[in-house]
């Protein structure tokens, strides 16, 4: 059974703009799906619907067997801007979701992964053995995202790439079964973006988190995804789905492979560019 089922999602904003029209998609547990399309085609709108931040005009999203109507502890979100709290250091910024869960959902503080069997098997995750030890979990995530030694640094002391690594650790710290990424590297320079893209692929393999990413970068989508969903211009619909059959782990050296170039060509063909 897919972990996410979006059934005929349509969104019409109050100003009359039709962002999505009967957008349907199923995402399997543990899958990495990238969504590409032209600006304004409704990609980010669809992500907001998945996150429970926006109710669709019509259609339904079911996450792990439950209809999505509001934000959920089962979903982590990484936006283009890291939005770290400037008065908190890296470690305390990453700890923040535990405090919010205690306030908003009445869960015990510092107990990540308290989502029942539906969250899936995390036994192979490097964090699973620290499920009831938040400090150990945070420490492991800091290492995983490459911020060891910067635990006590404040946002003003971090580069853009380092701040986004901290935001990624914060999104993952409660071990949500689903991670949504909205152009997470769009504000970074090209070299930092490549480095973080490779890091994200490594982190995804380590955590097994079902991931849905919106991006304008076709090469980034091919590098990261199991499937690439191509959207039509507004109103957004699914124009095509391309399976990425490159082996993992992936490296940027694969960009020279004929198969990498062929997948990019397929996506461009569906986009009409």
Chart the SSEs and their pairings:
Elements: E1 4-12, E2 18-27, E3 32-36, H1 43-51, E4 58-63, E5 66-67, E6 75-78, H2 90-105, H3 134-144, H4 160-172, E7 178-182, H5 190-207, E8 210-214, H6 218-224, E9 227-231, E10 238-243, H7 258-271
Parallel strand pairs: 3-8, 3-9, 6-7, 7-8
Antiparallel strand pairs: 1-2, 1-4, 4-5, 9-10
Helix pairs in contact: 2-4, 6-7
Structure, described:
By secondary structure, the protein is α/β, with parallel strands linked by helices. Helices cover 32% and strands 21% of the residues. The strands form 2 sheets. It has a 6-stranded mixed beta sheet with strand order 6-7-8-3-9-10, sandwiched between helices. Strands 2-1-4-5 form a 4-stranded antiparallel beta sheet, with helices on one face. Strand 1 and strand 2 (18-27) form a beta hairpin. The longest helix has 18 residues, at 190-207. The model is unreliable at 105-130 (pLDDT under 50).
Helix/sheet category: alpha/beta
Global outline: globular
- What's the SSE pattern? EEEHEEEHHHEHEHEEH
The Cα radius of gyration reads: 18 Å
Largest sheet: 6 strands, mixed
DSSP strand (E) fraction?
15-25%
Mean pLDDT: 89
Number of DSSP helical runs: 7
Termini separation: 35 Å
Low-confidence stretches: 105-130
The order of strands across the largest sheet is 6-7-8-3-9-10
Number of strands: 10
> How helical, in percent, are the residues?
25-40%
């Amino acid at each position: 059974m897919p972990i996410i089922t979006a059934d005929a999602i349509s969104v019409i904003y109050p100003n009359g703009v039709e962002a999505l029209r009967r957008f349907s998609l199923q995402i399997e547990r543990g899958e990495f799906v990238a969504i590409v399309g032209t600006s304004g085609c409704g990609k980010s709108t669809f992500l907001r619907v998945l996150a429970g931040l926006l109710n669709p005009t019509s259609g339904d999203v079911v996450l792990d067997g439950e209809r999505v109507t509001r934000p959920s502890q089962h979903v982590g979100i990484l936006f283009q801007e890291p939005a770290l709290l400037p008065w908190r250091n890296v470690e305390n910024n990453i700890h923040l979701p535990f405090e919010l869960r205690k306030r908003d959902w009445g869960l015990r503080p510092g107990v990540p992964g308290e989502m029942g069997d539906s969250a899936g098997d995390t036994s192979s995750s490097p964090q699973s053995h620290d499920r009831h030890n938040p400090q150990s979990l945070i420490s492991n995530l800091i290492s995983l995202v490459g911020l060891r030694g910067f635990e006590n640094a404040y946002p003003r002391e971090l580069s853009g790439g380092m701040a986004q690594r901290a935001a990624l650790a914060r999104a993952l710290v409660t071990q949500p079964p689903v991670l949504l990424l909205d152009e997470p590297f769009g504000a970074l320079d090209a070299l930092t973006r490549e480095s973080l893209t490779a890091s994200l692929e490594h982190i995804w393999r380590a955590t097994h988190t079902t991931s849905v990413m919106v991006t304008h970068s076709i090469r980034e989508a091919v590098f990261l995804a199991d499937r690439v969903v191509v959207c039509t211009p507004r109103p957004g619909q699914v124009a095509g789905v391309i399976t990425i059959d490159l082996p993992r782990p992936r490296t940027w050296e694969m960009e020279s492979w004929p198969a990498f170039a062929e997948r990019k060509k397929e996506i461009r063909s569906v986009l009409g560019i």
